[in-house]
Amino acid sequence: MSLMRYVKKAKKGDKEALLHLILLEKESYYKLAFSYMGNANDAMDAMEDMIVRVYEKIDQLRDPEVFYSWSKTILANGCKSMLHKRNKLVLVDEWQPDQESEPSCSGKAETNWIALENRRSCADCISRVGQSI
């Protein structure tokens, strides 16, 4: 069966046809995802997201001949989105506060709140030292 037929079947909701299309190019999908994500687990997650998104949006594909470039664009955009979300996440173990700068009104609210909590902790310690003397 030709590529066009599989794409047309997939557009009609045939999951097996979509799976067949994806399996034909699984190595190239994986290589693309891995080149963005840098590890196998994230690459596989990106591919899973791409499969779901392709299934949901295949009715928007106008030209069946461009299925692979269209689906790889979806994969690349999904990888970029995942990387963008990952960069926003800062783990507590990796977070290192800036010791030398005082928080200002122009800084982030979270940074100001953490600095305020640190000041309160220091003030509590100082008040306890004063009481014990």
Automatic annotation (TrEMBL):
<dbReference type="InterPro" id="IPR039425">
    <property type="entry name" value="RNA_pol_sigma-70-like"/>
</dbReference>
<keyword id="KW-0731">Sigma factor</keyword>
<dbReference type="GO" id="GO:0016987">
    <property type="term" value="F:sigma factor activity"/>
</dbReference>
<dbReference type="InterPro" id="IPR007627">
    <property type="entry name" value="RNA_pol_sigma70_r2"/>
</dbReference>
<feature type="domain" description="RNA polymerase sigma-70 region 2">
    <location>
        <begin position="29"/>
        <end position="87"/>
    </location>
</feature>
<protein>
    <submittedName>
        <fullName>RNA polymerase subunit sigma-24</fullName>
    </submittedName>
</protein>
<dbReference type="GO" id="GO:0006352">
    <property type="term" value="P:DNA-templated transcription initiation"/>
</dbReference>
<keyword id="KW-0804">Transcription</keyword>
<dbReference type="InterPro" id="IPR013325">
    <property type="entry name" value="RNA_pol_sigma_r2"/>
</dbReference>
<dbReference type="Pfam" id="PF04542">
    <property type="entry name" value="Sigma70_r2"/>
</dbReference>
<keyword id="KW-0805">Transcription regulation</keyword>
